[in-house]
Design goal:
Elements: H1 2-67, E1 73-74, H2 77-92, H3 95-102, H4 108-115, E2 121-133, E3 140-150, E4 157-167, E5 173-176, H5 183-193, H6 196-215, H7 217-227, E6 250-254, E7 260-263, E8 272-276, E9 281-288, E10 292-298, E11 304-310, E12 314-316
Antiparallel strand pairs: 1-2, 2-3, 3-4, 4-5, 6-9, 6-12, 7-8, 9-10, 10-11
Helix pairs in contact: 2-3, 6-7
Amino acid sequence: MLDDIREWISDNLRYILLGLAIILLIIIAVFAVRLVTHIGTSSSNSSQNKTEQQTDAQTEKETTADDTEESLVRNQEDLLDLATSYWMAIGDQDYDTLETLCGKTFDESARATVAAMDTAVESYNDIMTYSKSGLTDGSYVVYVYMELKLTGIETEAPTLREMYMQPDSDGTLLVVQTSDYTSEITAYVQERQKDSDVQALIADVSETLTTRCEEDEDLAQYIESRSTTSDSDDDSDDDSPDDSSDAALGTMQVSASTGVNVRSEASADSEKLGSLVAGSQVEVLENLDGGWSRISYIDSTGSTVEGYVMTEYLSAVG
């Protein structure tokens, strides 16, 4: 039996070897196909993952760019109520209410400031607020739009006032007087003045005022009179031998997109009295050597302030 098997294998050996070779080739082909498929899949997955990572990175970049500037919020209820109450109290010279809204005592100096505000304003109408978050939780930079009803003038004058509001220790939202700004608040407010939507708001109000002045000569004359200094030293202008120095005097506007600091003296090292946003109109009283100008302007409380700014940041109105 065993001899028969050996004889059969001997007679058919070449067929057996051929069959084994075929089987081996099939096995090799199967493994080769699987290997190629695996490599292709890995390459495809790697490419897809890379594309997804790039897309995610681009999306994050766009999201970050869009979120760098917080948009103005119009008429947030608590801010609108506080701003309205504040300006109504200013108009009525209601010091008790002002003390409550500002969380401070209005001494004789503060009362005199309010009392000296423009008596031509009969009322503050159509108040609206545009706000952004402040330095701390619950605080805000608020831009208050108002229509001023002026005595003897039919057309109302649009104006924009900047305010800062923050909660006290009890959480009550209060108005922070400009004189009480910390250096941090001042710097933060100046940063917000750079925002494109704030600049657009200022420009829009300025354009509206210009249009109304063109339509109402009485309003135009009033605005011009408010821009003219009442300093008695103006009488000496006729004695000036250099008429060219007067060419840049008069009503100018702040042209710096980032705003400009107002100093107590013609020096960057002197005390800072405040800051003016782009588009703010001032009265240039004197141009000094060294690139400084002495100006006069109306601050957020309605008071006339004199100070110094760099001349290069001023340009002619219009």
